[in-house]
Write a structure and sequence with these properties.
46% helix; elongated
Amino acid sequence: MFRTHTERQNSYELVCIEELVPQDHLLRFIDKYIFTKREKK
């Protein structure tokens, strides 16, 4: 009646955030602003 699944499918995907966020996105602006301020201190 019940079957155990002995075969499992494992898959991994390597994702780079730099490729997902467009160059003109607000998050890139914020990130750039924060690191610029941090470096000046």
